[in-house]
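Database export, one record per block. Field names are fixed; values are copied verbatim from the stored entry.
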Amino acid sequence: MKVYKRILLFLGIISLMSCSSVRVATDFDKEVDFKMYTTFAFFKPGIDEAKISDLDKKRILRAIERELEAKGMFKASNPNLLISIFTETRENVNIHQNNFGYGWGWNPYFWGPGGNNIVSSNVEGTLYIDFIDARKNELVWQGLGTGILSLDMEKKEEKINKIVNKILEEYPPERDQK
């Protein structure tokens, strides 16, 4: 019986670890030369629309600013790029059914008492980061990152930094060599 519980605990930990990763996708205008973008500013009307707390907005904007400055870009009052964000959240409910018990046979009716259902839930969030050409007012690049959110403030900030970092690893996009 203890062996089965240990196996379940191990499988639960593995499944939680696999869920904790960040999934990233990007899209961009292939006609744009991203080398010309050296300055940026945040697009306040777009950021105001994001349905998250002001504290989380600040965390996200600081993380974006750090990442872009590390890439050699500068924040400016007359920028090449405007940056906007928006978010989506979704609650996931996971039910893990365990029909292990004790006794002989494979039929659950012969196992006797035992078997557990483990219910867990988490909130999965998606952060979209949009880069808008300031002169043309056109979207030129979009990155999104999806991951499990945390309510613990320190873990939340760490998770936001990780998501922003993973998204912006894809910027600037590689141009196809023909």
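Remark 1: Helices lie at 2-19, 44-49, 54-70, 108-111, 153-168.
Remark 2: The longest strand covers residues 81-101.
End of record.
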